[in-house]
């Protein structure tokens, strides 16, 4: 029997997904649990495995299209089903076109039923609300004059307000590309965070000489234990301990209320070729340096392989972003809503440092804390970074 392939619900709050890429083509063999297609949602990009072994007989949703969860996007059948399915698909298209013509004729004779049938989907209504679009201004191409997602996106793209926002007209050789689903979500979240939070930043210079020495002496032990001991591991551990001592930074703002989170869930920003994702180390407060080292490496690896689950990128209470990995001296990161603080890590490099009355060379880095001034004052933010600095510069070897 043929097996329907549906758009999975990648988390409780996810209502739709976008097909980014079909890994298999119609007619190709596929094994059960073999990656079949790639999707992008509000939370995560992921490769979706086939629910059954057989042949990809039919693809019902094209790349770039967004559909509701549990919608049938493809059919897995046996060899020979692909040809039969293609014939059924062509007949279905003809039937749909004939049905649309019948509905359109009926709409002309019965305007009230046309209004009833042309009610837009929730996704289309949301787009209209976001862009303040009046449906009466749009000619729907769907059945009964229904305004489809393609109709409203075309209208928004061609509206005067859209072209007015361009910095300058397109020049010869310029080309336009749509943002990916992930890129659009990042853009929305960053703009929203800047709108909501009163962003302030403070920076401390930290001497990593002691951490570097301990890391060098323990690195082989960690590798034998299946972990990679990095500078980031020490920073995350120090941040977790500081959050336990200063819980006001492990909070979120809900209107006029402050939510103090029982658990410390640290998000680690991971740069991808196609965007940015923040997997979360849950219950970080009770974990050792070894545990944290394993999780940092595991989450980063699976993020790049598109193997994260939705729950692994949700529920963060504090975020660490390592901007120094690409050589940045320091950065001014944007807070990951609804959190109230984010730690930016600059590049760890050998620099001249004054020790007593002498100038010596030490590995140092700038740690930057971005915080929401609606709740966190400068003195509190500086105390937090002071704790990090003290922990890293005077690291107890017993904790490694």
Which short descriptors sum up this protein?
19 strands; 10 helices; 4-stranded antiparallel β-sheet; 400 residues
Describe, in short, the structure shown.
The chain has 400 residues and is an alpha+beta fold.
Secondary structure category: alpha+beta
The poorly predicted ranges are: 89-118, 161-166
Strand content bin: 15-25%
Radius of gyration in whole Å, from Cα? 27 Å
Overall residue-averaged pLDDT value: 84
Q: Major sheet: size, sense and barrel closure?
A: 7 strands, mixed
DSSP strand tally: 19
| Estimated helix fraction | 25-40%
N-C termini distance: 56 Å
Oligomer: single chain
State the helix count.
10
Apparent shape: globular
Order of helices and strands: EEEEEEEEHHHHHHEHHEEEEEEHEEEEH
How would you sum up this structure, described in words?
The chain has helices spanning 81-109, 111-117, 122-131, 149-158, 160-164, 181-196, 209-224, 231-245, 289-304, 378-393; strands at 3-6, 16-22, 29-30, 35-40, 45-49, 54-59, 66-68, 72-77, 199-207, 251-254, 257-260, 266-268, 270-272, 275-277, 280-281, 318-321, 341-345, 349-355, 358-372. It is an alpha+beta fold and 400 residues long. Strands 9, 12, 15, 16, 17, 18 and 19 form a seven-stranded mixed β-sheet that branches. Helix 8 packs across helix 9 and helix 8 packs across helix 10. The longest helix is centred in the first third of the chain and has 29 residues, at 81-109. It is globular and about 80 Å long. It starts with a strand and ends in a 7-residue tail after the last helix. The model is unreliable at 89-118 and 161-166 (pLDDT under 50).
């Amino acid at each position: 029997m043929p097996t329907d392939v549906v758009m999975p619900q990648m988390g409780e709050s996810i209502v739709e997904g976008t097909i980014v890429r079909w890994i298999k083509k119609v007619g190709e063999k596929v094994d059960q649990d073999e990656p079949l297609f790639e999707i992008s949602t509000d939370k995560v990009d992921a490769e979706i495995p086939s629910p059954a072994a057989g042949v990809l007989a039919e693809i019902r949703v094209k790349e770039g299209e967004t559909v509701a969860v549990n919608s049938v996007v493809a059919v897995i059948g046996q060899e020979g089903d692909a040809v039969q399915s293609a014939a059924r698909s062509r007949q279905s298209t003809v039937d749909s076109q004939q049905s649309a013509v019948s509905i359109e004729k009926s709409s002309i004779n019965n305007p009230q039923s046309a209004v009833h049938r042309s009610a837009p989907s929730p996704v289309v209504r949301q787009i209209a609300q976001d862009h303040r679009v009046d449906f009466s201004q749009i000619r729907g191409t769907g059945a009964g004059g229904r305004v489809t997602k393609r109709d409203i996106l075309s209208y928004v793209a061609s509206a005067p307000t859209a072209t007015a926002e361009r910095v300058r007209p397109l020049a010869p050789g310029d080309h336009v590309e749509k943002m990916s689903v992930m890129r659009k979500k990042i853009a929305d979240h960053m703009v929203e965070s800047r709108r909501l939070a009163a962003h302030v930043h403070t920076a401390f210079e930290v001497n990593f000489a002691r951490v570097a020495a301990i890391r060098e002496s323990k690195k082989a032990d960690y590798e034998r234990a299946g972990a990679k001991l990095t500078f980031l591991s020490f920073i995350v551990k120090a941040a977790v301990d500081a959050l336990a001592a200063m819980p006001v930074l492990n909070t979120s703002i809900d209107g006029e209320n402050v939510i103090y989170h029982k658990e410390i869930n640290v998000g680690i920003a991971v740069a991808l070729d196609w965007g940015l994702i923040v997997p979360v180390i849950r219950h970080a407060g009770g974990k050792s340096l070894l545990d944290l080292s394993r999780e940092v490496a595991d989450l980063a690896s699976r993020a790049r392989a598109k193997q994260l689950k939705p729950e692994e990128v949700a529920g963060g209470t504090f975020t660490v972003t390592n901007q120094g990995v690409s050589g940045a001296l320091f950065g001014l990161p944007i807070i990951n809503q609804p959190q109230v603080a984010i730690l930016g890590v600059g590049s760890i490099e050998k620099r001249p440092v004054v020790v007593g009355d002498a100038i010596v060379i030490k590995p140092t880095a700038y740690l930057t804390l971005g915080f929401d001034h609606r709740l966190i004052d400068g003195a509190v933010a500086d105390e937090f970074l002071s704790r990090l600095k003290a922990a890293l510069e005077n690291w107890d070897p017993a904790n490694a």
